[in-house]
Write a sequence for this structure.
């Protein structure tokens, strides 16, 4: 009976949190339009979330591509179709690995930075000070960071995929000796517009989800050192789980 | 009357903070809100700035009942106020100049040369014109508070609210802040509300003072009147005596019993 009662509490708490997040999303969307009136703030956040994540995204993309080249080559060789390596790597990167791994890295690099920055602003009364100065922190702080994350994510995912393809080519063609012409031409023939669209839609959705979680957690963090730390942890956990869940839903939707 | 708090009740998680609070702040005067730690001084500031709403009673600022106002109207009221936070609450990604310019840029379309002149004038008033290019992290506690004061007065508010302005300052910085509060009031005619428990400093500048205790106003009058109060509790606070009706020890079970007991009493 008690266990059932606890389940009830957990369920209610979960629903309440989802409702609060939905309200926060609505408030953010309302503030996104006036936020564009100060493009300088939005551009600064695209730089913070996007450009500053470039190195980790490119490095990860290169290594993931190289592993994909190696594993793909090994698998395809068993069927005597090594030339299909280009199309396998491209489809894998564009549809799945690019958006998903980028979102996971974004949550770890940019998401945590967003949460801790906004959380510390809350802890040091900066957000309250803005409210007292009659400046809505949702418009000045939260909305530009939310937009910045949404814009940065598809760009980062595209760069991840491109560098990943270079890595796959490096291993497959340069190291394992797959025919260069076959690698690129098979890729060209196999990849359809639909595959690219799927990748773009996924990275956009992940961008909205990860940025929303990061900004929401920071904005509502308990204004203490421990509170900001907890909020940062929640950002990584929630973003990662939601990314993988949404990936399944979107993959199923695109079939 | 700039601020009128009437019969305000407010509780957090069922724990009452205010049980019928009455306070009035008159235009052009410095009003001190005093009281031991935990008596709800900062909560009172939150009520006056409409960050929280009273459970019961009325908080009027510039004649408006805050409970009846919509967010846009609350922002309109706040534009007529300035607040100095205990830690300054400067925006850490902006330098001193931009921090002071922040409210001007957000609320006006003034040309850049005019904003520059306005900001430099306010920084000169707090003696930090030379620190305009520094970042908040490079400032001492006293300097940060002075920059925050410059930011609070840049829009020429009618009321300035100071939250514990003397905490953690060295004697020189404290003297500077004290002089600035007095100057803002005398030269600019700004109504000031100072929340603090530094009786000596407040006695030097305050026209009116309120002493909060147990959710109500325990005493009101000039700081000098409060020092001569008949109430033992008021006199204990004003003179900082450790002995008196306000106990030093947090309520606990008998000391000897607890020391000798095997388990917690």
């Amino acid at each position: 009976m008690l266990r059932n009662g606890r389940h009830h509490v957990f369920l209610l708490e979960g629903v309440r949190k989802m409702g609060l997040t939905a309200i926060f999303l609505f408030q953010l969307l309302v503030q996104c339009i006036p936020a564009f009136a100060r493009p300088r703030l939005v551009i600064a956040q695209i730089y913070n979330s996007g450009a500053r994540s470039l190195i980790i995204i490119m490095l990860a993309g290169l290594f993931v591509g190289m592993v994909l080249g190696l594993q793909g080559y090994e698998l395809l060789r068993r069927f005597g179709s090594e030339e299909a390596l280009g199309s396998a790597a491209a489809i894998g990167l564009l549809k799945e690995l690019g958006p998903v791994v980028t979102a996971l890295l974004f949550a770890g690099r940019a998401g945590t930075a967003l949460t801790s920055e906004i959380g510390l602003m809350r802890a040091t009364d900066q957000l309250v000070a803005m409210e007292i100065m009659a400046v809505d922190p949702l418009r000045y702080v939260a909305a530009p960071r939310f937009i910045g994350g949404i814009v940065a994510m598809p760009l980062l995912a595209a760069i991840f995929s491109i560098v990943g393809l270079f890595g796959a080519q490096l291993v497959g063609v340069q190291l394992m000796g797959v025919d260069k012409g076959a690698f690129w031409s098979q890729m060209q023939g196999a990849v359809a517009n639909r595959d690219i669209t799927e990748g773009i839609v996924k990275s956009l959705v992940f961008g909205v989800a990860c940025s929303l979680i990061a900004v929401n957690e920071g904005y509502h963090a308990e204004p203490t050192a421990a509170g900001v730390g907890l909020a940062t942890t929640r950002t990584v956990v929630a973003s990662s789980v939601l990314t993988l869940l949404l990936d399944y839903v979107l993959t199923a939707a695109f079939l | 009357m700039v601020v009128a708090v009437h019969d305000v009740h407010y509780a957090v998680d069922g724990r009452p903070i205010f049980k019928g609070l009455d306070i009035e702040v008159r235009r052009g005067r410095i009003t001190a809100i005093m009281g031991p730690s935990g008596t709800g001084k900062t909560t009172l500031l939150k009520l006056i700035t409409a960050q929280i709403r009273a459970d019961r009673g009325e908080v009027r600022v510039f004649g408006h009942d805050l409970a009846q106002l919509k967010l846009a109207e609350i922002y309109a009221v706040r534009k007529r106020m300035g607040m100095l936070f205990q830690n300054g609450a400067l925006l850490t990604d902006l330098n001193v100049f931009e921090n002071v310019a922040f409210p001007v840029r957000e609320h006006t379309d003034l040309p850049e040369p005019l904003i520059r002149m306005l900001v430099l004038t306010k920084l000169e008033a707090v003696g930090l014109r030379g620190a305009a290019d520094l970042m908040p992290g490079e400032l001492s506690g006293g300097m940060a508070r002075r920059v925050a004061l410059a930011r609070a007065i840049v829009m020429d508010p009618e009321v300035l609210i100071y939250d514990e302005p003397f905490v953690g300052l060295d004697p020189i910085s404290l003297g500077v802040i004290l002089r600035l509060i007095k100057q803002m009031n005398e030269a600019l005619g700004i109504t000031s509300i100072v929340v603090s428990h530094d009786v000596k400093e407040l006695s030097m500048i305050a026209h009116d003072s309120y002493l909060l205790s147990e959710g109500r106003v325990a005493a009101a009058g000039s700081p000098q009147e409060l020092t001569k109060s008949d109430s033992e509790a008021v006199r204990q606070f004003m003179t900082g005596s450790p002995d008196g009706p306000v106990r030093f020890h947090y309520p606990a079970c008998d000391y000897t019993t607890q020391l000798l007991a095997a388990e917690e009493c």
Remarks:
- The radius of gyration of chain B is 20 Å.
